[in-house]
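Students often ask why we bother predicting the structure of a whole assembly rather than each chain alone. The short answer is interfaces. A chain on its own may look different once its partners are present, and contacts between molecules only exist in the joint model. In this exercise we take three input lines together and write out one structure for the complete complex. Read the inputs first and try to guess which parts will touch.
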Amino acid sequence: MTALAADMLSRNFGGVHALTDVSLAVEPGERRLIIGPNGAGKTTLFNMLSGLMPVSSGTVRLFGRDITQVPAYERARMGLARTFQITNLFPRLTVLENVLLALLSTDESAFALHCRMAANHALVEKAEALLAKWNLTPITSRTAKEISYGEQRQVDLILAMAVEPKVLLLDEPTAGLSAAEVVRVVGMIRSLPKDMTILVIEHDMDVAFDLADRITVLNQGRLLVEGDVETVRNDPRVTEIYLGADDEPC
Amino acid sequence: MFWVIQALNGISFGMLLFMLAAGLSLIYGLMKILNLTHGSFYLLGGYVGLTVVHTTGSFVLAVLAGSCAVALIGIVMERFLLRRFHLQELPQVLITFGLLFIFSDLAILIWGGNPQTMPKPAWFATSVQLDGFVYPSYRLFIIGFGFVIAALLWWLQEGTRVGAMLRAGVDDEEIARALGINVSLLFTLVFALGAFLAALGGVMGGPMVGIYPGADFEVMLLGFVVVIIGGLGSLKGALVGALTVGLLDNFGKVFFPELALFTIFAPMALILAVRPTGLFGRE
Amino acid sequence: MSATRNLNSRSLAAVVLLGAVVLLLLPHLLPPYYLGLAVQMLVFALFAMSLDLLIGYGGMASLGHAAYFGVAAYATGLTALRLHWDVWLALPAGLLAAALTAVLFGLLALRTRGSYFLMITLALSQVLWGVAFGWRSLTGGDDGLPEVPRPDLGLPNLGLGPLTDSIPFYYFVLFFVTLGALLLVRIVNSPFGHALRGIRESETRMLALGFNVWRYKLTAFVLAGTFAGLAGCLYVYFNRFVSPDYIHVTRSAEVLLMVILGGAGTLIGPAIGAALIVLLQNVVSGYTERWLIVIGTIYILVALFAPDGLIGVIRRLRRRTP
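Now the answer. The structure tokens for the assembled complex follow.
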């Protein structure tokens, strides 16, 4: 069965059609890239898949189960994780506390009132190990709003990876990063387990074509074309929406 | 007969609440400020109007003076105290609440602690003979006046450029400035308009319900119930909510004098349970 | 870095120890009138700390916190006065009343946030004030309920009988306020407390991580309300009197100021803020009746110059002097 499927997904509000009849089916372990110009509806799609935005019509299925009406936090518990286009960390908490919260979400003590969080050594060690794995130990005690933008994007990614999801949605993970930071982040994505299903929204075409098994192209809220890397790269409609009809394709 | 009189009482009081709530909604809709000083605007408008009527004898002058004086206070308040806390909720609460307390006490200092009434204007001082009963013409005037204000505000919102800006909600300041909108001026004007409307309610209400210490808190609470029921940021919501609360408040006082506020609580709780953003509220 | 950390925790421990000693010895250092003032400071410190759980840690600014304070006071006052319940029943009755009110108000208000939430909490608690004011037959209306008896611990042989003297009553209050404060500290440092802070920082991220945010918020709301209720029970026993003033928005605004003046999100800050405001009110009332103008001005000054409170000011000063 497919890992994540959307069927005729639409979203309108106040007369604005953000997304119209978008369908896709992602197989387990697949690396699916979502591309398209600004305003194509990519983040809206992610918002509806992850449950942070209600659908106007259509359905979403996770491993065959209809989750269209399931609230966001429950989808996360079912194994769906995401990152955000605009960095969404816990600004005044330290990097360690940020990661601890991500790990806490799957811990049985998440609602405990009576014990001290600091006493949960297993959790703290796991968080520190995760940060050490990605060479981020130096920033462990700094608050999330103090660290650099590149470090924030990495922490954002770590939060989503920490819950060991089955399906991961990455919203523009390389946006605004330097060339070296892009390499790091792409490395982090490549290191993810092969059985994890990953959807990535990307603006960087090199990264997109490099990572993808299949690509979905959105334009103005609709599905334009979907296929493997070669099909999409050679489709004239794709270059057209990025460059404009009058320009010569690259 | 009894029902008609009580209904008219409720609607006329509702019109005062409408003027207050419309101002509150306007300010919130554009600037996202919950103006806790709004009740003070009502109170001060009433007191200033009272003083002017006592010194000049002119009701019209009292209405103008009260509303304009408070509008001026609003301009100063927005320009010097609130502007720097754009979108910062907690400092806004502290400032608007602090001013509420200060104005409340100042009013007692200046005008004394006793309840007072304003004399009615000459043309509406008497009662009229309606279909089998007598009713104060002033209250009927208030009802008519309220509808006129509603119509004017509706025209402002739907038919003018300023209204278009208000409806759009100037969320992105850069785009707004690029479109030639002077955002700071707009904010100050709208805040002044909101204050003006609240004070208008206070002066017009003077001959009807009187002016007294504590009216600011009372009217602020009722104003909040109005926008909770009708929806913050909606003119239609302010009118529907205001008339609803006016009627509920009046009938509540008539039938359950000990628990009058409770009759308002039930519909408010119902709205919160079913549609938390109010009947016509956005999002 | 760790050297200064140790210094901080050692100096903090020293301060706490000193504070504990002072509080224990206070009745032997102060005359009864000032001891009564100390009781007030303790009660409002607990009240402010309870609101800090909601505002400082949960990010939910409420203008209706006095509702639970007042409801508990009325419940304890009424059961003690009319039903002659002793403190071991009347106090829990107050706590229960506060908790139930918090559940009701929480269910109604917590589907909104920001300014809507603020407004709704204000409206709900003011309506409750109206009920207390209007229902004369039950609450005595504006006149309130006088002559509420002091708690009788029922062990006169051990010197723990009726607490009519100020010294034993002071220790009674100190016990409960300390208990409340310790519980709040434990809650704030628990996984629940950390999750609450996460919700304050970013609700959407917490949802995306799988936390049932609404359940956390409601729990925090009810906990905060219950601790506020404890403060209310203590206050009605102290005053031997309760009136609608306990529930009025002015009271809610006062405790909000205490939290912000002290420094939200620190627990100790609001406790200090509470002590300061109680002290100030006492001093100012000696000179003028215009307390509202004074507190209103303090509101504005805090907003303009110290929005992160005294603790924030102290932190800023410490960073400048290495």
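Check your guess against this: Chains A and B do not touch (no CB pair under 8 Å).
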